[in-house]
Amino acid sequence: MRPSDASGPFAHTAPISQATSNMNTGVLQHSTQLANSAGKFLPQDTFGMSSYRHTMLQALGRRQAGAPEVPSNSDPLLVMGALNASFVTDGMLYGIHVVLFAMACYILVRFQRRRMRWFLLVAVCSMFAISTVDIGLSIKLSTTDLWVLVTLTPAQSIERMPPKAMLFVTNNLIADILLFHRCWIIWGRPRIIPWIALVCLTADTIWGYLGHAAKTAAYQHTFRPLYLWTVFALNISVTAAAAGRIYYVSIVAIPPNERRLHKICRAIISTLVESAALYSSCILMFLLWVKYDEASAYWVIPLTMMTRLVAIMPTLMIVQLGLSHRAHTHNHDGRTNSKPDSDDVVLDTVMSRMQRDESLEYGFGGLAAGHQAMLSHSHSHTMGKTELPDSTENGMSSKKQGLHDTYLEADSEKFEIMDDPHDITIDVQSEKKNNASRHSISPV
C-alpha cells in the first residue's frame, strides 16, 4: 500500500505525500528546463550537461509514471545535496586549517628549539600544501564536474576522484610519521620503534596507493578497506602507547607534590587522546557507513571530514601544546614577556619542559633527576659554563624513588651545564678518560 492512498493506515499522510510529490515534480521540471536551455547555447555535453539532462528526464518520467514518491538513494537531487554539503564542510575545515597552520608556523619558528624546528615545520608545511591542492580539486568537482557526478552512482563517483585519494594517502603518511616520532620521543628513543614504523607505514602506504589507484574492482574492494582499517588500528595503538607511557611515568616517577607537572601530564594526555579519537571516529564512521549503506550518497561527508582532519589534527596538537606551554611558563615564572629567561620547550611534537630556573626537573617524560647539590647550585649559573660543586664528583648517584632504573649517576665525573638558548645538555667529562660524551636529557 502506498502512502498516497486515500484509505488504510497511511490515509492521514496523503496530503503531505501529494504536496511532496508536486514539489519534487516541479523541481525536476525546472531542472530539465534549465538543462534544455543550456543545451541550446552550449556545445554538446559541455560540463556534462547532456548526461545531466538525460538523467533528469528519466527521473521526471518515473515520477509522472507513478513511481514511488520517496526518492531513491541514487536520485540526482540527493546526490547533488550530498556533494554540496560535503563541499561546504570541506571549505569550513580548510579555513580552520589555514588559521591553525599560521599559528603552528609562528610557534615553531618563535619558540621551538633548532634541532626539531625544521622537521616539524617541513611536515606541517607539506600537509598544508597537499591540503591546498586537495581543496582546489574539491572546487573543481563541485562546479564543472558536478553535472557529471550527479548522473553517476556513488561507487562511480568515487572512481572519478583518484587524485584526491592519492593526496589523502600522502597526507596520512606524513601524519603517521609524526605519530610514530611522537611515540618514539616519549619512550626515550628506543631503536625498535623506527623499525616498527618503517614496516607498518610501508605496508600501509602500499595498500593505500594500490586500493585507490587500481583499475580493477577486486583490488579496490580489497585494499581500500584494508588500508583504512590499518590506519584506524595504528592511530589507536600508537596513541594508546604514548598516552599510557606518559601516565605511567607521571604516576611512578613524578612525586605527588609536583602538582604542576601532573597537570602538564594530564593536559598532554588529553590532547593526544582527543586528537586520535576525532580522526579515528571519522574513519570508523566512513567504514561503517559504506559497509551498511553503500548506495547512499551521504557517506561523502565523513569522507570529506576524514581527508581534511588527517592534516588538521597534527597541526592542532602543535598549537595546543605550544599555547599550553606558554601559559604554564608565564604562570610559573610570574612574567608575561614573550622570551622568558628559561629555556624553551623541548617540543618533539609533545613537549618536555625543562627550565634553567628550576635546573634539571622532570619533563613530562619524567627524567632529569638531579642531586640536591646540583639543584641548589644550578640557580647561580651565568653565561657560559657553570661547574657543579666538587661534592658531585665522587660516587654521586642522582636517583628518584620509583624511576624504574632511569636515573643519572656518575663515578668521578664532572657535570657541566652548557648555556644554550635553545637546549639544555649535560657534558659528562670523565677524569679517568680523555674523551667526553654529551647526553641530552630526554623523556624516558
Automatic annotation (TrEMBL):
Protein keywords: Membrane, Transmembrane, Transmembrane helix
Disordered, as annotated region: 378-399
Organism name: Coprinopsis marcescibilis
Transmembrane portions of the chain: 92-111, 118-141, 161-180, 192-214, 226-248, 268-290, 296-319
Protein name: Uncharacterized protein
